[in-house]
Amino acid sequence: MERQNDHADCVGRFRPGPMIDNRPESLVTWRVTTAATAVATDVASLLGGEPAEWETSAED
User: Fold this and answer.
1) Half-sphere exposure in the Cβ direction for 30 (13 Å, CA)
2) Which among 13, 41, 40, 17 is positioned nearest to 27, based on CA atoms?
3) Res 5: pLDDT
4) What is the pLDDT of residues 24-44, one digit of tens each?
5) For residue 25, how many other CB atoms are within 10 A of its CB?
6) What secondary structure, in 3-state letters, does the chain show?
7) Which residues lie closer than 8 Å to 54 by C-beta, 6 or more apart?
8) Is the pTM of this model over 0.85?
9) Half-sphere exposure (CA, 13 Å, Cβ side) for 40?
10) Is 13 in contact with 32 (CB distance < 8 Å)?
11) Which residues lie across from 31 on neighbouring strands?
12) Those residues with Cβ within 8 angstroms of residue 16's Cβ, 6 or more apart along the chain or in another chain
């Protein structure tokens, strides 16, 4: 089957850090964003983190 959308299987994103003055700033830990609570819980469990809400104005 031909894939119609490269992001069709994407359920979340690993985020290395924010951009400050057009330069990436590293975080001490990774932020993983997802709209799926089950994915957040599973990723946190696998990586030793805690799921938490993140305020955003975009679709993250």
Assistant:
1) 12
2) 17
3) 56
4) 888 788 888 888 899 999 999
5) 10
6) CCCCCCCCCCCCEEECCCEECCEECCCCCCEEECCCHHHHHHHHHHHCCCCCCCCCCCCC
7) 31, 33, 60
8) no
9) 13
10) yes
11) 15
12) 24, 26, 27, 30
- Tell me which amino acid residue 35 is: A
Query: Which amino acid, 8?
Result: A
The amino acid that residue 10 corresponds to is C
Structure tokens at 11: 């359920």
Tokens 């400050």, residue? 20
